[in-house]
Every structure is written in C-alpha cells, then in structure tokens.
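ugh ok fine here u go
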Amino acid sequence: IHLPESLSPFLAHFAARRFGYLAFIGVVAVAAVVVALLLPPWYRAEGTLLLPPETSDSYGSLSGLIQSSALSTLGLVTTSTTSDVFAEILMSRTLHEAAIRRFDYPRIYKRTGLDRTLTEFRRHLSVDVGRSALITLGFEDSDAGRAGEVINFLVSELDRFNREAYNTRAKRTRLFLESRLSDTQARLGDAQTGLSAYEREHKVLAGGEKAAVEGAAGVMAQKLNLQVRRAYVLEYAGASSAALRELDAQLAAMDREIGRLPGLKMEGARLALEVEIQSKLFTLVSAQYEEARIQEARDTPTVPILDQARAPELRARPK
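structure:
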C-alpha cells in the first residue's frame, strides 16, 4: 500500500511510542470495567398493551363526548387514536404522582419536593406507540422487582381511570335516555287518550287512512329520535360541535322528506298518526335505553395486556 509521504513522520512517531499508547488504552479499559462494576445497577422492565377493543352503545361514538370530558380532568385532549389517548394518560402527572406515593420514591431518589421527584421519575419512564398501535411501557429502577411492579401499577391505574370514565359515560347515557323514555311514554299516553276520546265522541274507529298513517309515522318517529340525539349532543358537546352540525343536516333532510308526505284530511286520522308516531318513538328509545343499561352493567377488562411486566434478570446499565 502506497502511503502519502506526509504520513510517514506520523507513523514513525506512533510506532516509536506504541507501547505507551497500548498501555493507556489498557488502563482506560480496565478503569471503565471497574467503574461499571462499582456503579449501582439499573434494571429495565417492559410491558406491552394491545389496542383496546372498540365499544359501542346506544348512541355509538356520540357517547365518547362524555369520555372526552373525563379526559379533561387530567388536562388531556383527545387525539387521533385510542392508543394515543392511553399513552397520554400513562404520561399524565396524576398517574405518576400516584406511583410516586405508592412506592415512596421521594425516599428512594432522595429528592426534596414532589416536583423534583416527578422529574427524576419521568427520566426513567418511557411510553411508545408502535405502528400497529401497540403501547410499549418501559421503566428502569435500581430494584428489578420494583421496576416491574411500577409498570403493572401504572397499567392498573390506567384501567381504573378508563373504567371510571366509561362507567360515567354509560351512566349518563342511561339517565338521559331514561328521562326521554319517560317523556315519550307520557306523550304516548296522552295521544292514546285523545284518540279514544275522539272515537267515543264520534262513535267511529279512526285510522281509515292506515297506509298513510303508518308511512308518515315511521318518518316522524325517525325525526323525533334525531331530535333526542341532538339534545344529547348539545348537552355534552356544545353548539359548535361537528356532531351537532351533522345532526342538523340530517334533520333538515328529514323535514324535506316530511314536506313531501300527503296530508291527512280527517281529525281522527291525525290523532291516529300521533299515536303511531309516539308508539314507534317509544319502541326506538326503549331499545336504546335497554342497550345503555347493558353497557352500564358490563364489567369487562378495558386495557388488554399482551406482555405483563416482570422483574428483569439482566441489568440494563451500566453496560
């Protein structure tokens, strides 16, 4: 190999002192090994969470508005996916402070004040969301067993918070539908009473235009059901929500369809229509109410765990 002439003095200088350089490298290597053996070991435990299953209730995604309001108690906002939301909850101050108190980290870290302890705690914690929406939770500690316990504790706190938010959502949905069901039942009773009084007074059976009554009743019941949903969204999302604008558009389309229905000429037919409308609406709301009761009573795990954290056998650092 032909080397430039400018390197020759350098190589000659290095060759003359090669034993000194090798000795220096050896001393540094030995010192690094000794320091690594003397430093306290740190162990890293990991756990993996699956993408939570999608849940549905009487109003589908609209009931998620209540869970969003529950997230605001932690100072969080809803992100694009459920995994992102869970990752933000796992990084929240509320869960971290609970773990700090549970394992007495101010004493372990020898930090004065909760803020300093919290900063040190977060230095050893990592939460990552993978491409497949799996959540990987890692924590390192000087005690291998405690490292795994901290991760499992954070997961249990996430599950507890999610259960409370979900139960609150299901309960509020059930209470809302319960009040609407009571109102619908009262209106149905009034309509039936009015129809019966008309038939007794005129000694006729109303509802001669049966086909027109049934067709109009179905459309009107759907409109009233949309109005119930609109009241639900308005209560929990506000007047500026996208869900409310979508429902308003559906109601406008329903009004146009109702405007094309043939009119009913007789008073008895109109009373029969009101009874049919309230009856169909009562059936719709009753089904939604029963589904809300089932959702409220459901007690299934909300955070599926793929890999539960365990005490690591090998230290993570120093290498």
